[in-house]
Each structure stands twice: as C-alpha cells, then as structure tokens.
C-alpha cells in the first residue's frame, strides 16, 4: 500500500539523523577551516531538511490517521483486487490543492532550527569530549580489540546524539504541532516564538519534552544495533582477501542503518504521537488517534 511505502521512505530519511555529524578538525587544524566546515555542514543539513520536509510532513499526517482521500482499487502481486491508500504524490497534490505549494512546507522553520541545533550541539560536544584515536583493526585475530573500539566509538556517538536530541527536541515538538494543524485547519501554532509562549502557558516547561524518551530510546537502539551488526558483518562475513572488501565494508553501515530503522520506527512513531497529544487539536478527538501519555 502507498501509505506503507511512504512510512518506509520516511524511516529511511529519519535514520540519517543519528549517524550524521559534522567532521571534526584534526589536532593541528586552525579554527578557520574547522568553523568553515561546520558552517558548510549546517547549510547542507538545512538544505536536506528542506528537501525532505514534504515527505516527512505527509508521513506525519498518515501516522495520525488523517485519510482525506478515498482508497483506490488495484491489484496485488497475486492479481487479487485490493484497496490502496493514496501514496505520497497523491497526498502531496491534495495538500497543494488545499494550502497551495507553500503548504507542503508547513512547520519547516522550527524543523530547520531543530536540525541546526542538533548539528551544532553534536559538533560542540565532540570538541568538548574528543574521542581518542584508535588504530584501524580489521583482522579476525584482533576481534576483541576491534570490538572494544566499536563499543567505545558507539558510546561516544550515543552521548552526542542524546545531548543533541534533548537540545533540539522542543523545536521538534513545535514543528510536529504546526504540521498537524492541517487536519483541523487550526492556526494555534504559528511563529516559533508564539509557539514557545503557547506551550509554556498551557503545559509548562515539560511540554517541550513530550515524546523525548521514545526518541532517545530509538536513537540508542539504532546506534548500537547498526554499529554492532556492521562490525560483525565486516569481521566475519567479509573476507580480507576479497578484492572489493574495503568497498563492501564502506557500505555495510549504510545498509544496516536502513534495515535497523524498521526496528526503531515504533519508537519514533510513539514519540511523534506523544508530541501532538493533549494540545487541543481536532485530530485528538477522532477515534483513529489513540491518547498516548507514556511509552
């Protein structure tokens, strides 16, 4: 079905976040090149966020159960007639008809700020707590040393991701609520500053961190499963004598990231639904969206 494929694409886009971080400068690098690289990375991250926003916007509307278009009749692989929910392009055209082309970018500003905060925070944490360099180990005779290296790197990456998630989550909550307003045509959340004031007034400081725990758990599970699976595959399944061994190893972590994202998707789904709960929207009173107060 179109909605299932859409969610899979959304998972693939979302899975890029935990594993991406700005490059660190070497010990002898000056502040100029390092700052330039960080600015470039932030700009690229903002560009990717803007391009992927319509996809994640439609995915969120599907997640909350908004089905404004009737299913279409089609045939599955066995030739049987089945009903298919609208896919991304059909859903996107519906949004354009209702809100215009700008409607596809509802909630983009807080999402770009959230992405920027996440990227900058990761860079600052990495500079404040640098990871000691360890020699590359690929031989099976050094499995214990190699595994210790993976555990150390993953622990360091997990710390950076958790800190950046906490810092950027308030803007993520605002972005989610801005997008969900499409369902009931509300205008409760507009600008970033007014949205901050609205959450403080109605929910207090804790309103900025609803859905944080599921997202952190999803990030942690993603990092450990992805890195450990990639390590064991590169160590035991890829032979060093193979000519293209280095090329295969370079893609292993990427492929594992897509596969593991399916495992961690429920955490992200629960976190997003918690972010839009108890905020007075019409969608909350529909029977399709459950009330979620904890993981």
Strand content: under 5%
Mean pLDDT: 81
Trace the largest sheet across and list its strands: 1-2
Low-confidence stretches: 15-21, 24-30
Our count of helices gives 9
Can you summarize the main beta sheet?
2 strands, antiparallel
Helix vs. strand class: mainly alpha
Residue share in helix? 55-70%
N-C termini distance: 27 Å
Count the beta strands: 2
Helix and strand sequence: HHHEEHHHHHH
Radius of gyration: 21 Å
* Overall 3D shape: globular
Give structural notes.
This protein has 295 residues and is an all-alpha fold. It has 9 helices and 2 strands; from the N terminus they run αααββαααααα. A two-stranded antiparallel sheet has the order 1-2. α3 crosses α5. The longest helix has 42 residues.
Please describe the topology of this protein.
Elements: H1 2-14, H2 16-19, H3 31-63, E1 72-75, E2 81-84, H4 88-99, H5 108-128, H6 143-184, H7 192-202, H8 212-237, H9 245-276
Antiparallel strand pairs: 1-2
Helix pairs in contact: 1-3, 1-9, 3-5, 5-6, 6-8, 8-9
Protein traits:
single chain; 295 residues; mainly alpha
Provide a quick synopsis of the model.
Helix content is 66%, strand content 3%.
